[in-house]
Amino acid sequence: MSMTPAQAARQELAGFTGQLVGPDDSGYDEARAVYNAMIDRRPALVARCGDAKDVSHAVGFARDHGLPLAVRGGGHHGAGLGTCDDGVVVDLSPLKDIEVDPRARTVRVGGGCVWGEVDRATHEHGLATPSGIISTTGVGGLTLGGGLGHLSRKCGLTVDNLLEAELVLADGAHVRASADENTDLYWAIRGGGGNFGVVTSFLFRLHEVSTIVAGPTFWPVELGAEVLTAYRDFIPHAPRDLNAFFLFGSVPPAPPFPEELHLRKIAGVVWYYAGEDTDAAARVMAPLLDALPTPLLHAPAPMPHPAIQSAFDGLYPPGDQWYWRADFVNDIPGDAIGLHAKFGAELPTWKSTMHLYPIDGAVHDLAPTDTAWSYRDARWASVYAGVDSDPANAEGIKQWTVDYFDALHPFSAGGAYVNMMMDEGQERVRASYRDNYARLARVKADRDPRNLFRLNQNIQPATGS
To answer: pTM for the whole thing?
Structure first.
């Protein structure tokens, strides 16, 4: 009887310092689980890597045995691209080293960290780097796809603050990518996803960010069109210290929200002011508030930076059903606003939501070709997310998401933020990188010509001259 991949790995990877988990092991179901419970895949082997050498061994095992290879950091990707059926999952979660250098204002981060761990470590020194909006998100996935978040308008994308990375390539080699070393890789990984290797360590630039003013403002969903119109006109002219994303959602049925608002559908804004002066924050928020009726709730308050970064963690724990769609957006005309208001009022479950993230300020300081992340000229990134804890509602949340996306896509800029895409096909990937795709394909051909790293928003190796 032939050996299973897990049995073969235990025999062949004698120097593996981490844990090799196969379908017959007691911890298998836990080892294969990802954030989105709609994803239920059964890998032949989960290789929990203890160090970069383990990563190289696991990559080599998958390559030499012709097995599909997935790479998992935080496991948050909506399409489940951090796992696979009948293949090898390189699980980076044990790689948790975090080293803050407050004098240099940098932090070196292991490839298995989640952002909450990084936020807490840097906050001890009054420092932070752009890190999305949910602290359970993996550092690797968010970074390699670009990294939109609360600090984007002030500090740029996460990739704009990536100084260097250490990678394991398809041939098992360990390399460093920076502005001075392997510059092709350094350009490509800043937005090109996990197409080029497994990043085992990141070095980020840090910024002085400590106590900030943040929190939500909610209006009745019936005012959705009015709120979105005012937001559209307001945010491009707001100072860079202020970030605010628009959302349709429902008031969570828990503190600190007033009980009389629980589960009420709302149109809202989540504020983030990168400073602790509440009067200054109020002044820069005022033009939007003055343009609208009195809100149901206005709750921005001083808090530590990690507090707003983790504010959504309890609302969206691992194990919910998720279905996402997304687009980049340049303009939001009246017809689009009317459609947004329609779908926002038809949220299928209380956890389902739509977010509209601003892309301007520091993000626009770089040109579209400076990094692989092409849409520097976009104004917003939209995401439609059907979410529920009950698998019985999976089709309903998917249908609402797809219908919403289909209705608004004609108003899009063409591509989407790859971290918020499902498995939508090669043309959609090309559209999301635009003119950068050809260069990415050349780097791919040089670094991963056989496309071993293909379980991602895949960039296919260039062929020919």
So the answer is: 0.97
